[in-house]
Structures are given as structure tokens and as C-alpha cells.
């Protein structure tokens, strides 16, 4: 038994189903051959037995018979059967996919009646084969009756339909799953980007994350973002992700060129699937997708993707990158607004405290230093960054109430009278009153009003004792004392660091919190003092306002 | 009698998703996997609306809709196109093919249903889609 091989045809899209069918039919003694829409053999033809093979050599075998049947099937589009010159029974069904005729499946078998047939003897004579030898070759393969052909035809039809249905379903399921998977990826990307829109995040960081995520989900070779500077003081941001060796300069040029060429018209996303051809430029860029980052109807930048790995960019990519572009623009705008508000707030607070400090030339820069020292102490206590920042604000504003203390008292070089001292003692409460109306500073006020309280209860304004003095107040109190002692005052010169250290130690547990004192004294104070003088050199140019003594 | 909608797309999952949505909304649905099949089915089934993909084997969605206009019996059938390359199609081409709505993939099935209602002049949404999964 030999096989004849033909070129694979279109039919082979059904390959798996047909192979399965062929294997099953062979088990029950039926040999299946498949013919394409042009009547050519697709795959192999296996003759049922050696006798058929010998008959074949004299063009009396079953291949020609199968071929003729296949052509007839293709022509009629209906099931049919025939008998080959060598006596094989042939049954055939057309193969359809949806409504399209793809080819034919022909099964052949040797019927039992073959060897009893006079035709068999005649063929043996014609082929010059010994009848007994021929019988020996053919008989073992004669398993079925000729009359079963009708039933086999039905069964073949059913099996083919079923195998095709199974294969189609499996393919559809595969495609559906692949589609679902990429949809999940897109959803996941959108969720991840939305979730990562933390306002404290640096814009560059955020953009980098967006680019590297797009890279994977859109299956592209590179992604980039350009965000233009809004003011001269800002830097332009350019980020790139991927493996195309595009540098920031190239990306910027590309973004500019793209906008200049009006590919991004009306602030809509754009795709160019034939970039190299259309622009004959930009090195290895084959295709690209770009979406302008629009905030408040202004284009603030561009988000771009390069070289889709499979095929062209399509509307699925456009929708995805547009959505990301919108989110990115929103994030950038919020981030900018947040930074602006923060800068404005800090600017106003610094101006406010500098104006208090200006009342007393000797306390020049004091508020800022207390703020820095307090923050450092808060950090040493292991408080959160946010809590430490609140304590910084409290430090900055701790003397705001001095606005209500007469300048003559604050600037008085000698000893204060009881009355004068009473007016000084009112400043924590005044400060609390001034800031009390600001909802956002509620917790800051607590520190301000208690920064002159002492653990032994001899502080002011409320004479709180021990645990009653909140941590913020203790930190501010220590920072305030430390800065007061290390600065010149109207009534004395700055003390030496050794003297300051001794004085602070002496007051630990009575005026000051011993734990905080330990934290402070364990720092390298002389280095810290140098750092402070650099951080607060001559705050806000107070010299200009006329405080000659301000150092 | 419920209205009949023909959907043509070579992506089986689109056919599945849309068939489900439209059947649940009470429509009869017939599907085709290419433009030729869609045209033959239209001539046979006379749907009230066709929804077609653009890029399909044997005959594109544009060609298919254009062909509909050439037959007296199918000339009036409103058409909607769902495509991933809507940017490649000129408005004039759409008009010529009698396509009144174009939606870019990926689309929300709800969106398609709403457009179907509009095209069929059924502005009131069919009350609460019955929950069937055929």
C-alpha cells in the first residue's frame, strides 16, 4: 500500500477536522481522501490494499474513481457514491464551510462481494495477476458489504458535519478568548492608570508609568510622552519607553513635527500607518499613533506610540490611547494646580511669618528655623512625612500671634514689666485666634497654642502639665528654645553650643520633654546649625525692609 | 412580528455578542461571515436593518451595502457599519453605500442597540430586555 501526495489546498484550514475523521474511518476499514475545490487531491491518498495498488498501475484503481466522484460532488454539491474499476465502493460528501464549497471527502472500502464477483476475476486476468494471490491481497480488507454504502454515506456526512462544527467552535472559542484577554488587558491598563493618579506623584514618574504600560498592552515597540512647559520657569518633560533607541531630542522633534504637519488637527488623535512612506523620515518608525494631551482646550503635550508589532493601528488603539491621553491630561492639570496651590500657600505663609519676624530684628528668620528644627525633630520621632509637614507649618506659624504684641515690647532691650510680660504671654492665644478660622490648619493651631506650655505646669497660657501638653507643642517648645538660645536677642548675645546643650539638659523633664531632648542632642548640632544658616540665609531680603540688624 | 436584523462580520465573537444583545431586545437575528453571504441572505431574508463590518473576505461591507442599493427589494434597508478603521473611510463612500451610522470598534453593545432603535424609528427603548441566553 503506497501513498500519493498532492499539494495542500485551501481545504487545509479544515485540516484538524479532516485528519481526525481520516483516523477514525481507518479504524473501521474506510480510507478517506480529500479533494480541493479544483478537484485536486489534498493531502494523501492511501489505497485500501495492494491489489488496488496494482490495479492502479493499470489505471483501474480507486484514485481515478475517487477523483471522478469528487469532481461530480463539486459539480452537483450533493452526496454521491460509485464503484471503482477495481471493485472498491466509494462514497463521497461535499465539504462546505458556511455556504462555500471547499472540496469533497471521499471514502472507499473493499466490499465483501468483490472477491466473488466475476469482474474481479476478469480484472485479475487483465492485470495478469494470479487469482489466488489477488484474493490473498484483497480478502483481509473486505470487511463490509456493498449494501452498507448508503449507511456509510450518511455516517460520513454526519461525522464531517460534527468534526467541522467542533473545529469551528474551537477556533471561535480561541479567538474569543484572545479577544477577551486583550480586552481585559486594556481594562486593566485603564484601572491601573486611574489608580496611579496620586496627586503627590511626580508628573515625570506618572508619564513614565503610562508609557511603559501602553507598550505592553498595545503591543508596540516604543511609547513616548512630551509635555510642554507652561511657564519659562518650568521644564519640558519628555519620557520614552521601549526598545527603539529613540532619544528625548528625537521624540521632541517628532512631536513638534507632528503638530506642525497638522496631523493632530482639532486636538483629535491621529494615526499614520505608513509613516516611513508618507514622511520618508524618522529612521525606523514604520507606523505611529498620537493623541494630544488637552487641558482646558489647550494642547499641553502629546502621547505617542510607535511601530505596532502586529499589523496597523486601528480604532481600538485610538480609543485606548485617547482614554489614556484624557486621563493623563487630567492628572497633569491637577498635579500642576496642586503644585501651584501648594507654592502659593507656602509663599503666603512665609510672607506672613517674615512680616512678624520683621517686627523684631533679633528674631529675623526665627520662624523658618523653628519650622525646620521642629520638622527634623518630628522625623527623628518617626512621625509620618505628612505629620512632619504639619509640624513644619506649625513651626512656621508659631509666633504669628506676636502681631498682637506691641513692637515696643518685642524690641525692648531690658527687662519687661509684669504688664509687658503679660502682653507677650498672650501671643499663643492670639495666634490660635488668627488661624482658628482656617479649617485646613485646625491641627496646626493645637501646636501653636501650646508651644509655651511646660511639662511642670509652669508654662502659659493654660499651665498644662505633663501628658496634657500635646506632642506638637513639646516639639515646637524645644525647637523654639533651641533657636532662641543659639540666636542673638535684644537682651543677650547668642550662647555657645556647649552652654545651649547644658541649658537644654538642665531643663529636660521640667520645661522640656526628656525624650525629645535626647533626640535633639543626639544630632550633630554644629553641622545642623551650619545647615540652618544655609537654609535660612537672609529670609526674604528683610534688609530691604529696613532691619539693618538682621543677619 | 419582531423585526429582523442581519449582522455581517468575519469575527465570530462580534456576531455572538451582538446577536445576544439584539435577541434579548426582542429582534430576530441572522448572521453572515462575509459580504457575499450577507448579500445573498439579505435578498432571501429581507431584514429590516443590516449591521456590517467593513473588512470582510470576498466582499467588503461597503461593497455589500452598495449592492443592497442596486436591488429594488433591498434598496431601502438602513445600514450601520462597525469598523476598526473608520478613519480610512470617506464620508462620501458611506453616503454612496447608504450607511447612515458608523461606530468604531470597540463599541458598547448598548450603544449599538440604541442606534438600532433610532434607525428603526423605535425611539422608546424596548421595555426591560428579557433575560434570555439562547
The quaternary state of the protein chains shown equals: heterodimer
Distance from N terminus to C terminus of chain B (CA atoms, Å) equals 19 Å
Unreliable sequence segments of chain B: 123-134
Radius of gyration of chain B, in Å, reads: 14 Å
Series of secondary-structure elements of chain B, N-terminal to C-terminal: EHEHEHEHEH
Largest protein-protein interface: A-B, 16 and 16 residues
- In terms of DSSP E residues, the strand content of chain B is 15-25%
Mean pLDDT of chain B: 85
| Shape call of chain B | globular
- The number of helical elements of chain B comes to 5
From the alpha carbons, calculate the radius of gyration of chain A and give it in angstroms.
46 Å
Work out the helix count of chain A.
20
The global form of chain A is rod-shaped
Query: For the report, how would you describe the main beta sheet of chain A?
Result: 7 strands, mixed
Derived structural class of chain A: alpha+beta
Strand content of chain A: 5-15%
Q: Structural class per helix/strand content of chain B?
A: alpha/beta
Query: Can you count the beta strands of chain A?
Result: 12
**Integer average pLDDT of chain A:** 84
Explain what this protein looks like in three dimensions.
The complex is a heterodimer of chains A (551) and B (134). Helices cover 51% and strands 15% of the residues of chain A. Chain A has helices at 15-27, 50-57, 62-76, 118-127, 131-138, 149-195, 203-217, 248-260, 275-279, 315-357, 366-380, 385-397, 407-410, 418-425, 427-436, 442-449, 471-486, 497-507, 514-521, 525-535, and strands at 3-6, 31-36, 41-46, 80-83, 89-97, 100-111, 142-144, 220-227, 237-242, 270-272, 288-295, 298-308. In chain A, the strands form two sheets. In chain A, strands 1, 2, 3, 4, 5, 6 and 7 form a seven-stranded mixed beta sheet that branches. In chain A, a hairpin with a 2-residue loop joins β11 (288-295) and β12. Chain A starts with a strand and ends in a 16-residue tail after the last helix. The model of chain A is unreliable at 1-8 and 539-551 (pLDDT under 50). Chain B is α/β, with parallel strands linked by helices and 134 residues long. Helices cover 38% and strands 19% of the residues of chain B. A five-stranded parallel beta sheet of chain B has the order 2-1-3-4-5, sandwiched between helices. In chain B, α1 crosses α5 (109-119) and α2 (35-45) runs parallel beside α3 (61-70). The two termini of chain B are 19 Å apart. At the A-B interface, α6 and α10 of A face α1 of B.
Amino acid at each position: 500500500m503506497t501513498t500519493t501526495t498532492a499539494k495542500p489546498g485551501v481545504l487545509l484550514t479544515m485540516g484538524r477536522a479532516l485528519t481526525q475523521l481520516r483516523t477514525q474511518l481507518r479504524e473501521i476499514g474506510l480510507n478517506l481522501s480529500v479533494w480541493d475545490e479544483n478537484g485536486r487531491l489534498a493531502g494523501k491518498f492511501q489505497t485500501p490494499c495492494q491489489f488496488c495498488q496494482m490495479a492502479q498501475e493499470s489505471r483501474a484503481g480507486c484514485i481515478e474513481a475517487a477523483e471522478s466522484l469528487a469532481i461530480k460532488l463539486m459539480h452537483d454539491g450533493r452526496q454521491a457514491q460509485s464503484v471503482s474499476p477495481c471493485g472498491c465502493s466509494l462514497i463521497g460528501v461535499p465539504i462546505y464551510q458556511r455556504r462555500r464549497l471547499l472540496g469533497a471527502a471521499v471514502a472507499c472500502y473493499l466490499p465483501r462481494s468483490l472477491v466473488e464477483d466475476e469482474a474481479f476475476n476478469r480484472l485479475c486476468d487483465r492485470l495478469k495477476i494470479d487469482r489466488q494471490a489477488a484474493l490473498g491481497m484483497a480478502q483481509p480488507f473486505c470487511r463490509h458489504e456493498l449494501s452498507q454504502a448508503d449507511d456509510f454515506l450518511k455516517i460520513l456526512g454526519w461525522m464531517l458535519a460534527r468534526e467541522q462544527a467542533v473545529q469551528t467552535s474551537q477556533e471561535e472559542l480561541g479567538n474569543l478568548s484572545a479577544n477577551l484577554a486583550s480586552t481585559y488587558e486594556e481594562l486593566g491598563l485603564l484601572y491601573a492608570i486611574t489608580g496611579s493618579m496620586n496627586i503627590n506623584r511626580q508628573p515625570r514618574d506618572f508619564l513614565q508609568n503610562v508609557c511603559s504600560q501602553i507598550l505592553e498592552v498595545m503591543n508596540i515597540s516604543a511609547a513616548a510622552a512630551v509635555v510642554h512647559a507652561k511657564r519659562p520657569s518650568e521644564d519640558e518633560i519628555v519620557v520614552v519607553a521601549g526598545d527603539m533607541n529613540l532619544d528625548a531630542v528625537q521624540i521632541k522633534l517628532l512631536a513638534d513635527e507632528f503638530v506642525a504637519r497638522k496631523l493632530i488637527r482639532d486636538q483629535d488623535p491621529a494615526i499614520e500607518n505608513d509613516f516611513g512612506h508618507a514622511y520618508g523620515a524618522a529612521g525606523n518608525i514604520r507606523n505611529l499613533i498620537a493623541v494630544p494631551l488637552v487641558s482646558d482646550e489647550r494642547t499641553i503635550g502629546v502621547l505617542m506610540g510607535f511601530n505596532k508589532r502586529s499589523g496597523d493601528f486601528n480604532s481600538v488603539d485610538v480609543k485606548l490611547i485617547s482614554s489614556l491621553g484624557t486621563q493623563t491630561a487630567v492628572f497633569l492639570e491637577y498635579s500642576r494646580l496642586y503644585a501651584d496651590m501648594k507654592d502659593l500657600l507656602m509663599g503666603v505663609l512665609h510672607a506672613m511669618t517674615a512680616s512678624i519676624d520683621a517686627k523684631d530684628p533679633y528674631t529675623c528668620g526665627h520662624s523658618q528655623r523653628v519650622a525646620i528644627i521642629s520638622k527634623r525633630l518630628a522625623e527623628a520621632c518617626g512621625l509620618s512625612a505628612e505629620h512632619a509637614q504639619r509640624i513644619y507649618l506649625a513651626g512656621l506659624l508659631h509666633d504669628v500671634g506676636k502681631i498682637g504684641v506691641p513692637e515696643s515690647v518685642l524690641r525692648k532691650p531690658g527687662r519687661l514689666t509684669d504688664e509687658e510680660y503679660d502682653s507677650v504671654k498672650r501671643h499663643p492665644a492670639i495666634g490660635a485666634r488668627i488661624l482658628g478660622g482656617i479649617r485646613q490648619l485646625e491641627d496646626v493651631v493645637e501646636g501653636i497654642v501650646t508651644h509655651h506650655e511646660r511639662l511642670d505646669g509652669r508654662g502659659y497660657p493654660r499651665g498644662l502639665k505633663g501628658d496634657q501638653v500635646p506632642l506638637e507643642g513639646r516639639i515646637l517648645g524645644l525647637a523654639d528654645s533651641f533657636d532662641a538660645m543659639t540666636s542673638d536677642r535684644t537682651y543677650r548675645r547668642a550662647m555657645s553650643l556647649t552652654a545651649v546643650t547644658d541649658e537644654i539638659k538642665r531643663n529636660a523633664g521640667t520645661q522640656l520633654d526628656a525624650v525629645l531632648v535626647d533626640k535633639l542632642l543626639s544630632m550633630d548640632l554644629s553641622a545642623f546649625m551650619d545647615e540652618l544658616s544655609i537654609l535660612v540665609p537672609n529670609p526674604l531680603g528683610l534688609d530691604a525692609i529696613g532691619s539693618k540688624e538682621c543677619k | 412580528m419582531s423585526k429582523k436584523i442581519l449582522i455581517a462580520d468575519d469575527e465570530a465573537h462580534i456576531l455572538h455578542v451582538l446577536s445576544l444583545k439584539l435577541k434579548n431586545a426582542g429582534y430576530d437575528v441572522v448572521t453572515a461571515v462575509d459580504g457575499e453571504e450577507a448579500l445573498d441572505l439579505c435578498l432571501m431574508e429581507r431584514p429590516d436593518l443590516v449591521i456590517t463590518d467593513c473588512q470582510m473576505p470576498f466582499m467588503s461591507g461597503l461593497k455589500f451595502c452598495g449592492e443592497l442599493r442596486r436591488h429594488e427589494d433591498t434598496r431601502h434597508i438602513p445600514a450601520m457599519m462597525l469598523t476598526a478603521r473608520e478613519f480610512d473611510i470617506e464620508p462620501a463612500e458611506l453616503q454612496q453605500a447608504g450607511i447612515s451610522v458608523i461606530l468604531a470598534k470597540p463599541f458598547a453593545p448598548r450603544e449599538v442597540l440604541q442606534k438600532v432603535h433610532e434607525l428603526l424609528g423605535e425611539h422608546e427603548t424596548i421595555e426591560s430586555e428579557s433575560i434570555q441566553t439562547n
